[in-house]
Amino acid sequence: MGSVIQLVGERLKQARETVGYTPEEVCQKLGISTEELFLFESGRKSPPLSVLRKLAKLYGVFVGYFYGVKKPEGTAFTLLLDKAKELSLPPETISQVNRFIFLCREIVKLRQKLGIPKPEIPQVDSKENLGELLEDIGIPVIRLPLGRELSSAMVCDENFGVFILVNSDCPDPDQLIAHEYTHILQGEKVHLNAKDCPKATLQSKPPTSKVLWELVLTAVKHELISTSYASDLLEVSPMEIEEFL
Fold first, then answer.
1. How far apart, in whole angstroms, are the C-alpha atoms of residue 205 and residue 200?
2. Sequential DSSP letters for 18-63
3. CATH for 2-66?
4. For the chain, what are the domain ranges?
5. What CA–CA distance (Å, rounded) separates 3 from 210?
6. At what angle do helices 49-59 and 2-19 cross, to 10 degrees?
7. Distance from chain centroid for Cα 61
8. pTM over the 0.90 mark
9. Do residues 154 and 183 touch, judged by C-beta distance below 8 A?
10. Mean pLDDT per segment of 10 residues, for the chain of length 245 residues?
């Protein structure tokens, strides 16, 4: 039991430092004391599940991460996070990039469980409805609120495939998707489009991606993941998951 609490503590600290929050910022956002956070991160006290859920959301990870649940690594995913940090983006935006990476890794894991190969990169002439076309062939275009300082990003891992991230608050998402698609065709591993979205916010929204939804719902139907876990991934209630099945 002690080793589990210690692992959770180590992962809590690692996740906080990854996105760049100070202990004081975390405590202010969650309404807990710095002493309490120190006890959690040092492995001296086990955080309640309700607090773990809030911390996971704040850091852009899933609760399972704190318990050491393994995800497919992917060197390009790590490179994307490193490049996001180099841009000196605010912690809230880094957290969303981290959230995108975790969703990408979950997509990889679900594909492996369902026996679905990574999709090939198509050569498309028209940029009209490009996001829809890419998702129809299995390339995820994930929309998340990224704040004002990041419009879009992409990651291309030779083992796991291509994934596109679009700021859900930016106007003209088709143009952003086309921008990232061009970088994909140029053979780049990662790209971040640090173009400003002046009116963008960082209010939490569920991730939207046809590929993600279809994989998660198919996995639930095949009893590969629970409805509860599916609701965590899609950030909707278990009841909503049941309605879609």
1. 13
2. HHT--HHHHHHHHT--HHHHHHHHTTSSPPPHHHHHHHHHHHT--H
3. 1.10.260.40
4. 2-66, 72-245
5. 39
6. 30
7. 7
8. no
9. yes
10. 83 93 95 95 92 92 83 81 91 93 93 93 81 93 93 93 94 90 94 85 81 95 92 87 84
